[in-house]
Amino acid sequence: xxxxxxxxxxxxxxxxxxxxxxxxxxxxxxxxxxxxxxxxxxxxxxxxxxxxxxxxxxxxxxxxxxxxxxxxxxxxxxxxxxxxxxxxxxxxxxxxxxxxxxxxxxxxxxxxxxxxxxxxxxxxxxxxxxxxxxxxxxxxxxxxxxxxxxxxxxxxxxxxxxxxxxxxxxxxxxxxxxxxxxxxxxxxxxxxxxx
Length: 195
Prior knowledge:
- This protein is of the alpha/beta class.
- The protein has 9 helices and 5 strands; from the N terminus they run βαβαβαβαβααααα.
- Helix 3 runs parallel beside helix 9.
């Protein structure tokens, strides 16, 4: 970030007032990005930020970078990763959820250009809930040892909360419907190079 390297988080109103000055990078999955994003945001999923580092560094050398996700947690992880590489960036406090809650519009691609995908948080809730339910049903109907599945998911959720990480989200993020199409990622990287 060139103008104000000490600032690491901006409120919705601070970001909105300066939105035209930022290169906005949405670090959510492509499906989440397609469901609605801060106007002008380029989609570079969190797990691809390191791969896009040269392009992000190029954009940051020419202006301020704002990282956005659903709530701010993934954007903060991306900010810390970039900071470790000497690239300054700010995050949007509360993410796109706060942006929308403040009454600001979200951009959405044309319907024919998107795939309907649930948010990562919703995918995790569904997968965890289905796994626990499956473990209980199999434990009651087949063999009590299947209850270990439910206990394992519960333990994983507790670990996830304590460490602010989510292994299930990392696994779900690797599924084909959560991966960016190569052409889309290439377009985002090219846009970063052009900043």
